Amino acid sequence: HARGGSLSSPNPGSVMGNDREMTVVERQVAAMMRKQREEQDEQAALARRAEELRSRGEQALNDNGDLDVDSDSEHDDLERRGATGRARREFRDRGLVFDSSTDEVTVTVRAMTDLELGMAFAWMRRDQRRYEGATSFWSKAGTGIQECFEEERCPGDKDVHAAVGAWPRLIGAFVPFLGPAPFAFAMLKDDGLTVDTMGVRQGFRRMGLGRTVASAFIDRARRAAKVRAGPPECVIDAVPDAVAFWRAMGFSNHGGADSPTTAVMRKLCGDVAMSMTLLEDPPTPRGHEWWFEKPEEQRGYWSDDSW
User: Residue 133 gets which letter from DSSP?
Assistant: First the structure.
């Protein structure tokens, strides 16, 4: 018995309120878990599709003798040279330069087919297993590359597309001298002009191919800048191992301020901001270009892009 009076039942309104509060929380948690499961399912599906393409691509490379057991061998005996080793040896013996002088050495940068991406996946996996220190594009980024490949919308503003054409998020690089497989790939940032990630097949490095591919992207960005469809400066994020390469391409350390998010990612990944001036005397912006930043006093108070 309660002292000083009879027992009373809990406040019905309080119980219902707690029930409603818990229901809201539970629904939010359930929605978050459902979304997480959907994302995990989608990532798993992307990984399966990437593996299917890799398997097909590996078979195609094997059929061409391009992924043989000793493909990197440059043995003096012609019959004992591997596919990539034979290409490197011939490249040096003939003094080849990858330019547009003949069809054989003309580098083309374009979208990849399913089979071509599969062949790229095959050499990505082969590289990381065969070469010590090779970038693990297949195991660490294969799913992301597949997702970029499946992206239907080309990145970039409509002015970029009108000026220099719409390129897909994922690009392959080809040269007839090296056969039907792409020797390199690159992914574009959201602006549709800047390289986000680029990789060259390990066995074909130090042949000037990476420089040729990078030049194609730089030239395209420069053409866009000439008609105000892009900024007069190209800014990239280079991984530490690639800094020397991009410096040789004409980039230097970028001194501009990073956003808080970018600053954190630089500390986590070790990326180095580098920039190149595309035009020494660029056309004057009209003020409405997608890339043009207005002075601080002309911007809105609450948002950098509110103007």
Answer: T
CA 218 – CA 150 distance, rounded (Å): 25
Record the tokens describing residue 126, joined without a space.
């082969």
The amino acid at residue 201 is: R
Q: Tokens at residue 139, please?
A: 């195991």
Listed residue (87, 50, 91) closest to 66, CA to CA: 87
What is the spatial distance between Cα 124 and Cα 113, in angstroms, rounded to a whole number? 16
Per-position pLDDT tens, the chain of length 307: 444 444 445 555 444 444 556 687 777 887 888 888 888 889 999 999 999 999 999 999 988 888 765 555 555 555 655 677 788 888 888 899 998 889 999 999 999 999 999 999 999 999 998 888 888 999 999 999 999 999 999 999 999 999 999 999 999 999 999 989 999 999 999 999 999 999 999 889 889 999 999 999 999 999 999 999 999 999 998 888 889 999 999 999 987 666 666 666 667 677 888 999 999 999 999 999 999 986 654 443 333 333 3
- The contacts of residue 68 (CB under 8 Å, 6+ apart) are 62, 82, 83
Comparing CA positions, the residue from 124, 12, 131 lying closest to residue 58 is: 124
CB neighbours of residue 297 within 10 Å: 5
> What are the tokens at 3?
């002292």
The torsion angle over the Cα atoms of residues 144, 186, 272 and 202, rounded to 10 degrees, is 100
Backbone angles phi, psi at 273, to 5 degrees: -75, 125
CA angle 129, 49, 33 (to 5 degrees): 105
Q: How far apart are the first and last CA of the chain?
A: 70
Q: How many CB atoms lie within 10 A of CB 226?
A: 16
* Contact call for residues 191 and 156 (beta carbons, < 8 A): yes
